[in-house]
Design goal:
This protein has helices spanning 22-28, 118-127, and strands spanning 2-4, 13-20, 35-37, 41-49, 54-67, 74-79, 82-89, 108-111, 115-117. By secondary structure, it is mainly β. Strands 2, 3, 4, 5, 6, 7 and 8 form a seven-stranded mixed sheet that branches. A two-stranded antiparallel ribbon has the order 1-9. It is elongated.
């Protein structure tokens, strides 16, 4: 969904209540062959033109089929973050390559040509929720490197 920033009235809520179709979610996560959507990404929130930036507050919800990094089994994980972002037009900040972000700026996203690509922002927000290594559980024991037994199902007889 692309939104023209010029159509957002100053200090007036632009309500969001929709979803990103499964095929669009899966296309975004196509590089992650160990991840696929089980349902559309639902979102509900608001955009508000604050003058110097556009505020985005939204609640997201999607179920993803993931593959455990340690044991290789498929598991379902629900991502349901609340996001709070500042959207800033690139032309209002000068040369993007020269911008230095501080800790307070990490919730800032830029957009170009007056067009906010809402779905891209929301999908990236889900991606940023991913763990460095997706695990089926925090105490996943993985697989035996010798016999390939899933150690979550019990010990194997291989020498330690």
């Amino acid at each position: 969904m692309k939104i023209q920033s010029a159509k957002l009235t100053f200090n007036k809520d632009f309500n969001l209540d929709s979803e990103i179709p499964i095929d669009e979610v899966n296309a975004y996560f196509n590089d992650f062959d160990e991840c696929s959507a089980l349902k559309p990404l639902a979102y509900k929130g608001v955009l508000v033109n604050k003058g110097k930036f556009i505020a985005l507050e939204a609640d997201l919800n999607v179920d993803l089929d993931m593959v455990c990094y340690r044991c290789g089994i498929n598991y379902t994980r629900t991502y349901a973050p609340h996001i709070s972002l500042k959207l800033i037009e690139v032309s209002s900040v000068g040369n993007v390559d020269e911008i230095v972000l501080s800790g307070d700026d990490l919730d800032t996203v830029t957009f170009e040509d007056g067009t906010i690509d809402l779905h891209a922002i929301l999908l990236e927000s889900i991606y940023l929720e991913f763990d460095e290594q997706n695990l089926c559980s925090e105490d996943c024991k993985g697989i035996c490197l010798i016999c390939k037994k899933n150690l979550n199902d019990g010990d194997c007889s291989c020498p330690k």
